[in-house]
Amino acid sequence: MRIPFDNSYATLPDGFFTRLDPTPVKEPKLLAWNDDLAASLEIEGGDAKTRAQVFGGNQVPAGAAPLAQLYAGHQFGNFNPQLGDGRAILLGEVVDSVGKRRDIQLKGSGPTPYSRMGDGRAWVGPVLREYLISEAMHALGVPTTRALAAVATGEPILRESGPLPGAIVTRVAASHLRVGTFQVFAHRGETEALKTLTDYAIARHYPDAEGPLDLLRAVCAAQAELVAQWMSFGFIHGVMNTDNCSISGETIDYGPCAFMDAFHQGRVFSSIDRQGRYAYGNQPQIVVWNMAQLATSLLQQMDDKETAVEDATEIVHDLPELVEAAWLRRFAAKLGISNPRPEDVDLINELLSLMQTDGSDFTNTFRALGTDQARDHFTNGDAFDAWAENWRSRIKDEPDPQAVMQAANPAVIPRNHRIEQMIEAAVAGDMAPFERLMTALATPFEETDPELQRPPTEDEIVPATFCGT
Ligand code: AMP
Ligand code: MG
Known about the structure:
Elements: E1 17-19, E2 29-33, H1 35-40, H2 48-55, E3 67-69, E4 73-75, E5 78-80, E6 88-95, E7 101-107, E8 122-123, H3 124-140, E9 146-159, E10 162-173, H4 179-188, H5 191-205, H6 212-232, E11 235-236, E12 258-259, H7 283-299, H8 305-334, H9 344-358, H10 362-368, H11 381-395, H12 401-408, H13 416-427, H14 432-441
Antiparallel strand pairs: 1-3, 2-9, 4-5, 6-7, 7-10, 8-10, 9-10, 11-12
Helix pairs in contact: 3-13, 3-14, 4-5, 4-7, 6-7, 6-8, 7-8, 8-12, 9-11, 13-14
The structure holds adenosine monophosphate and magnesium ion.
């Protein structure tokens, strides 16, 4: 197998990472492989066995410069001065077929100096969950890391529930630079490293940015768009810690994330998010909080602190408005409106409030708008009718509301109960449910597999998700 590595992170100063190889595993077996992504990365050759060896961590491919990255982060609001890749190894980077630089990283590949108490491993559940949801997000048009391979290790790993089958996911990302990467050097007062990192991030992601403040502005804009997209698809990330907040603006780190079935602003899936810090409706505020942390870190390198603080404060203060605008654009599209007006916010919120009261399915209700079935998603049909009358008069002058809605409201999302069923089957050696979901989710705006559009029945509901770490 040939991977056209072209590594840049590995040329940064030593303090940025620790070089080490993945820890070999007993019996690597390829569970999933992303042909299209491999082709776009210009990876050539290699049969299933070789892929399992390489992406199971047993064989370091030519040109790789394996390393674990250092970073810090606020976890649920508390600062941890040192995190880092505790169970991930960056093999290296490739420049893909459209000229974009991409990280290739193994996750679950064994302990590193940053593992703390962890075993450096992952089990097949979270691995397939990340694989499937990240690819589904990509198909929905949401910026995201992608999945190249899933490999079973043939080794059991121990979790609270007992031994589970180990696995490794190969993740492809615009980069793995996070807010936490800036925080680690800022916290340590390593100004030179912070400057190097800033220059690197600008060159890699925002080449037009002139200096730290411009970088902050660009990341804020990207994060505003990202969270608006999450909201518009009912996606709940679940662990929006600053170490899981990407500088590139991609969705990163699919842990206890999930898509909502019944709509509720306060919806939480993650079993560890007891206070609901990362609940669905809190996500826009958390993005602002995370960007404030990035601003604080970036400021450490500024000479003219007073003006810099003023400028950075202004950028962060402007962010809620940016998020609101992106949110309005996305939700207006869900109603068939391509030219939103400020008063559309009320129209959208009125619908969401009816949905919340009635526990309407988020995805299917929006999908049904404009059809005779829409009313069926509400227990209070009269209230919906009243809303719909306003809505119809609002979209009268819109050029093509049906087309706009079709493109904004997916038919199929990776519903949590389907993911759980898929994982259960995979553990028992049956990958058919995984394949079925992957096929339907590749074209989420088409109705190719109606059964997968169905919300969970009472006893199918999977109310909570686990980090699986
Ligand atoms: P996460 O919440 O998954 O983003 O992880 C937070 C931190 O914990 C990161 O530094 C991870 O590398 C580390 N971590 C998570 N799970 C493990 C594990 N099983 N072994 C070692 N480190 C881990
Ligand atoms: Mg993480």
